[in-house]
Amino acid sequence: MPQGTAITNMVPTVGGGAVITYTIAPSLPSGITINATTGIVSGTLTSTQTGSQTYSVTATNTGGSATATITLVFNSAPTDIALSSSSIAENNAANATIGTLSSTDPDTGDTHTYTLVSGAGSTDNAAFNISGNNLRATAALDFETKSSYSIRIRTTDAGGLTFDKVFTVSVTNVNETPTNITSSQTAIFEGNATGATVGNLSSTDPDAGDTHNYTLVSGAGSTDNASFSISGNQLKAAAVLNFKTKNSYSIRIRTTDAGGLSFEKVFSITVLESPFATGTGNLPGSQQITAASNDVTISKGYSSNLDVTGKDLVSYRWSPAIGLSATNIANPIASPSETTRYTVTVTNNLGLSTVVYVTVNVIEDYNLTPNNVITPNGDGVNDTWVIGNLNTYPDNTVQLFDKAGRMLYQVKGYQNDWAGMLNGNLLQEGAYYYVIRIGNKGFIKKGFINIIRE
Ligand SMILES: [Ca+2]
Ligand SMILES: [Ca+2]
Ligand SMILES: [Ca+2]
Ligand SMILES: [Ca+2]
Fold first, then answer.
1. What's the gap in Å between 140 CA and the centre of ligand 4?
2. pLDDT at residue 5 greater than cutoff 90
3. Which regions of the chain carry the CATH code 2.60.40.10?
4. Which of 141, 206, 223, 430 could bond to 176 as cystine, CB 3.0-4.6 Å?
5. Which ligand minimizes its atom distance to the CA of 174?
């Protein structure tokens, strides 16, 4: 007789004269009644009863009474489910048992079966199964993927009454072996400083937040370990590397996690040839351009074509900027007014940078290039007398003489603007003699200029 469910009516069978009244003893439990007229026992048990109880039913008529017995077998629903353990270490075997199920039931000796049932809290039922009273994980669980599962379990007693309970199953972490090592960089420009960082090492590890330390270890591929060192997670060059001597190194690195599990990997470290910077110069006292080289000489007022070349370069940064046509290209024009050592920081397509140099020596050789003709006809060509590079020496004095040695013209700080005039009149065609002085250095450049009328 389950609690809470209407029982099947129990109808008495009688013989003899008509029964006048039925009585029952002891009293029926709450919710169950006997009809005093028909003798039918019916109702819905509303109280918790356990075990069984025998009742005497007495039917009375005019001739007397007769008594029979009925026995009610009670069954109450289970009231709780216990799980001996609700956690399991990750990477379990298929169908590993998590814990054992048991029920609390008012009925002593009642038996129970367990099932996973849908309903509130049954979200993760699919990952589990129940065998007998063992709750099992159907497949290997992964702590890092999901560490908490919600399942809904039903216990059903021998009388078919049930109780459902939601459990949380926890997956506990197990340390797992790192699976890879990477280096932020595996190339380095030659000419590095000893101890220069090649790259930052990192590990792939199934365990989130695991920490790792790195060592160079012997084994396959460890040939060149001695040329490197590791500090923290930084792979460093233990020597100055030289592209021409050796441009590829093989090293073997081990990562060890906080739990002592390790993984090893062989890396090939590439040494890159350093770029180089050059500039052109000019021969002293001449405009003739000299071949590009790393250390160049120009006359003050002249320029040098700088150029940096190297493999896979993608950006340039020249310094100092003074005297340069640009600071972010491979080949700026340099016109320094004094000797300057230019540095250029270059970056290649791997994002690696290095610095190279070119020195432009500037000599004050008064490398002037006076024109030897003026044709003052207003056609824009040779209308005035131009002294090339004179603007480099603003402290100049220019004098002009005729063939008789008479000084016709003198100016300090000549601006390349004399158009062959003297006192408002054009000088006669012909050759004139000039003298150029710079400051008080005593330097004198002399020559002839021809005035031509066309
Ligand atoms: Ca029961
Ligand atoms: Ca895992
Ligand atoms: Ca783990
Ligand atoms: Ca680990």
1. 18
2. no
3. 276-363
4. 206
5. 3
How far apart CA 130 and CA 116 sit, in angstroms, is: 7
Ligand 1 center to 52 CA (angstroms): 12
Dist. CA 292 → ligand 3 center (Å): 62
Q: How far is the CA of 215 from the centre of ligand 4 (A)?
A: 16
pLDDT above 80 for 400: yes
Q: What is the CATH number of domain 80-172?
A: 2.60.40.60
Class of the CATH domain delimited by 180-272:
mainly beta
% of the chain residues with pLDDT over 90? 84
Q: Which ligand is nearest to the CA of 77?
A: 1
pLDDT band at 7 (very low <50, low <70, confident <90, very high): confident
Amino acid, res. 186: T
Give the distance (Å) from ligand 4 centre to CA of residue 202.
13
**Ligand nearest 177 Cα, by number?**
4
Q: How far is the CA of 174 from the centre of ligand 2 (A)?
A: 7
Note the pLDDT of residue 18. Answer: 85
The CATH number of domain 276-363 is 2.60.40.10: yes
Output the CA–CA distances (angstroms, integers) from residue 267 to 179, 256, 426, 432, in the order listed.
Answer: 15, 17, 82, 77
Q: Which tens digits make up the pLDDT trace of 16-39?
A: 778 889 999 999 999 999 999 999
What's the chain's length in residues?
454
Instruction: Report CA 182 to chain centroid distance, whole Å.
Output: 12
Total Cβ atoms within 10 A of residue 365: 18
Of 127 and 17, the one with more pLDDT:
127
**Complete DSSP assignment for 313-372:** EEEEEEE--TTBS-SSSSS-EE--SS-EEEEEEEEETTS-EEEEEEEEEEE-----EE-S
Residue 442 has pLDDT above 80, yes or no: no
Residue range(s) of every CATH 2.60.40.60 domain in the chain: 80-172, 180-272
The letter for the amino acid at 38 is T
Instruction: Please give the backbone phi and psi of residue 379, each rounded to the nearest 5 degrees, phi first.
Output: -90, 5
